[in-house]
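The following record pairs a protein chain with its ligand, PMT.
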Amino acid sequence: MELHDKSIIVGVTGGIAAYKAAELVRLLRKAGAVVRVAMTEAATHFVTPTTFQALSGQAVFVDQWDARMPNAMAHIDLSRQADLIVVAPASADFMARLAHGMADDLLATMLLARDCPLLLAPAMNRQMWENPATRRNVAQLRADGIGILGPACGEQACGEVGAGRMLEAEEILEEIEAFLTPKLLAGKRVLLTAGPTFEAIDAVRGITNLSSGRMGYALARAARHAGAEVTLVSGPVAFSAPAGVDRVEVRSALEMHAAVMARAADADIFIGVAAVADYRVAKVAEHKLKKDHGGVPPIRLLENPDILAEVAALPRAPFCVGFAAESRNLEAYAQNKRVKKKIPLIAGNLIQDGFGGDANCLILFDAAGAHPLPPGPKTRLARQLLEHVAQLCAARDAN
Ligand code: PMT
């Protein structure tokens, strides 16, 4: 999600993880948000306000009595401008004060006076996190409707290992984006395929294609952000699984077919983004083929099952979406694939636009005709495609 029209306050409290808040502010601003920073006095011992001012491009607030606010009501004015407040790091002491409704500094007062959602990214030593007092405070904060992000497990600044480490800035950004995305697919189970398949020839060689997995991973991530429970059956790609997405790693088309068919009956929506090999090698050589063994080896091919067509033919088939990458005649070929595979929607892209890069040009084809999407990043196109899917699903459910 892009955060262009969002105003976000980052609250920073006293803890060594405050250095990660600097990166978070940078990432939020890069994503297009207007970011304002409010710090506790303790936080200024770890990172200076000047750092946050430079990164946010906005004045930083620490003091409740800040004379820059003409009405001396920084706590009200700042929070009224915000779509969301994120406190990262949230120290054990700060969470205790918040759980008890204390308002003894600018940040705590602002949170008490806020009318926007609040997320906390706790950061503390593992024993502080496990302490019954902290457990009580976290439970209270959750009950008050405050979102708790993490914490992660791992090595801590004190040298100990355990739960209490603040999430990384990228992970917090991911959670913020998910939080702010409208939940168009709440309650839906979405199954996707992504990436290429690899059809082995021998122990080291194979037939594959140039799909990077970017389009499929962007869709998996966007579906999770839209509130769906997401399973991603992925061919070999270079990415880690998107947060909150259940990834099943496969290599060949037959493995992808088995992984999808085992899960398709439980899915509400199936999206086939993978560039699946149409053919596999009939007899895979166990060892590396040797050049000096009597000329060019013949490679006989067998047809792979059509995963998308099989899912669409299930008795209670999920809502099926296909992709078509073509080098010409995009509309005719894509619509032909849609009709042949008996699916309600197919996303067409030209090979030179779709394969590999971060951006794409998509045209959606359904029974009503063609719906071109403005060219752009795959992350945005993924959101727009899911909006169209949500509309068609809602229309289908209404009939
Ligand atoms: O991964 P990226 O680099 O981001 O690139 C994205 C993409 C170009 C791979 C993607 O946008 C795309 O177009 N994917 C489909 C590629 C294609 O042309 O597939 P196809 O025409 O072979 O198949 C049509 C549809 O049937 C696809 O949804 C495909 O997943 C599905 N299929 C095809 C063959 C098969 N055996 N089983 C299938 O399920």
